[in-house]
Specification:
Layout: E1 3-7, H1 11-22, E2 26-31, E3 51-52, E4 60-62, H2 65-74, H3 77-85, E5 91-93, E6 98-101, H4 106-119, E7 123-126, E8 132-136, E9 138-143, E10 146-150, E11 152-155, H5 172-176, E12 186-188, E13 192-194, E14 206-215, E15 218-229, E16 233-235, H6 237-243, E17 251-255, H7 262-272, H8 280-289, H9 292-295, E18 299-306, E19 314-316, E20 336-338, E21 345-347, H10 352-367
Parallel strand pairs: 1-2, 1-11, 2-7, 11-20
Antiparallel strand pairs: 3-6, 4-21, 5-6, 8-9, 9-10, 12-19, 13-16, 13-18, 14-15, 14-17, 15-16, 17-18
Helix pairs in contact: 1-4, 1-10, 2-10
Bound molecules: flavin-adenine dinucleotide.
Flavin-adenine dinucleotide binds at residues 7-13, 30-33, 38-40, 42-44, 49, 128-130, 156-158, 161-162, 165-167, 171, 313-314, 340-341, 351-354, 357.
């Protein structure tokens, strides 16, 4: 029986703690905040999109896509559902393959974990903002006002996105203490910025649009879904998906009437103009720009950046998979493992990041 410390009580940390405790290990979660699973409770617009039936490494960005594929193959989306249902609850896919708890409440998923963690007797220390991990015979973890020794450590402290959930990027330093590197970091699944003048007066308008991301006149990515105009640019699930690929200077092309052929739009314009075919605020803006009939199918906006880490759902980059073995153990310090977003793996929108949190937790639990 091993004594294991898990740093971070998020999706990955709670999952690994449950998996290890079920195998009879003594597990302690050290969480800097006052509650477990705060970010998990906010996922999927509060509905908890925990995985996706359409799974594969092609939905992820990483330094080692093959290793991502191998880890996902060892813990599939079906395994995630089975694992979550082993704690209670029912999980069902929607028409697009996104899997949610039947009650559509993310906090209910967190509650399953909290209950299971308590049932298994996993020790949880709140307010433990770990600031040092060293090794001499065993691991020594320190935080203000406390310290603990362990045979193995799981660093599951998340990335740099959405710091209001306790993830400000400072945890990478714990891995760097053992010589690990951190790849360049950038915000992903985040609102896109564009010139505010271009979207003036559109704030709050939501459309179901075709979105095409162009770079140097070449298509980089295309999707269909919700596009929401904000004060500084674009939000919505189609935009979040595109943000995984977008760079400053790219052009977002929007087709506001993806199901309507040009001839039908032409006829409608002859009869009533732009105000009659789209949201009136949007129609006024298209008319003011001239040539609204063309713009309604092909409206360009230049990306000037993103809203940044504080507003991002995930972090692109992290500790390279290349510095870990098949069970995500550090190649630089035996007994030190990584799980979740702290690694250089991020998925597209649709339950892929939580699937990574659970699949990586599983690999770690097998390694330990
Ligand atoms: C608003 C929002 C919505 C999202 N929706 C979805 C979705 O629907 N589906 C999906 O798949 N993904 C979604 N994501 C992404 C997903 O939530 C994350 O990828 C996932 O939670 C990462 O899990 P994690 O355990 O690695 O990190 P986190 O969940 O971020 O947990 C890390 C934990 O570590 C703690 N911690 C940090 N540093 C220390 C330290 N030094 N000492 C002790 N504790 C520390 C933090 O307080 C935190 O509790 C969403 C993210 C956000 C922000």
């Amino acid at each position: 029986m091993k004594k294991i410390c898990v740093i971070g009580g998020g999706a990955a940390g709670m999952a690994v703690a449950v998996m290890l405790a079920r195998k009879g290990n003594t597990v302690t979660i050290l969480e800097r905040g006052e509650r477990l699973g705060r970010k998990l409770s906010a996922t999927g617009n509060g509905q908890g999109n925990v995985t996706n039936v359409h799974m594969g490494s092609g939905f992820y960005f990483s330094d080692d896509p093959d290793k991502v594929a191998r880890i996902l193959a060892r813990f599939s989306e079906g395994d995630t559902v089975e694992f979550l249902e082993s704690m209670g609850g029912i999980f069902l896919p929607d028409a697009r393959g996104r899997v949610y708890p039947a009650g559509r409440q993310a906090s209910a998923v967190t509650d399953l974990f909290r209950r299971e963690i308590e049932r298994l007797g996993v020790d949880v220390v709140f307010g433990a903002h770990v600031n040092s991990v060293t090794y001499a015979e065993d691991f020594c973890l320190k935080w203000e006002g406390g310290q603990m020794h362990a045979d193995a450590v799981v660093l599951a402290a998340g990335g740099k996105a959405a710091k209001n959930f306790g993830t400000d990027g400072t945890a990478y330093a714990l891995a760097q203490q053992f010589g690990h590197t951190v790849t360049p970091l950038s915000p992903a699944l985040v609102q896109l910025r564009c010139d505010p003048k271009e979207v003036r007066g559109l704030k709050g308008i939501r459309v179901d649009a075709n979105l095409t991301l162009m770079r140097d006149c070449k298509q980089i990515f295309a999707t269909r879904g919700d596009v929401l105009f904000t004060e500084s640019g674009l939000s919505g699930d189609a935009v979040f998906r595109a943000s995984s690929y977008a760079q400053k200077g790219d052009v977002v092309m929007l087709d506001f009437l993806p199901d309507v052929p040009k001839e039908r739009i032409h006829a409608a314009f002859l009869r009533g103009g732009a105000l009659c075919v789209v949201h009136s605020g949007l129609g006024r803006m298209l008319a003011a720009k001239g040539d609204p009939e063309r713009l309604v199918k092909c409206f360009p906006l230049t990306v000037t950046g993103t809203l940044g880490f504080d507003y991002a759902q995930v972090t692109r980059g992290g500790i390279p998979l290349g510095e870990t073995d098949e069970n995500l153990m550090s190649m630089l310090r035996k007994g030190l493992f990584f799980a979740g977003e702290i690694l250089n793996v991020d998925g597209v929108c649709g339950g892929y990041n939580l699937q990574w949190a659970f699949a990586s937790a599983h690999a770690v639990s097998e390694g330990i």
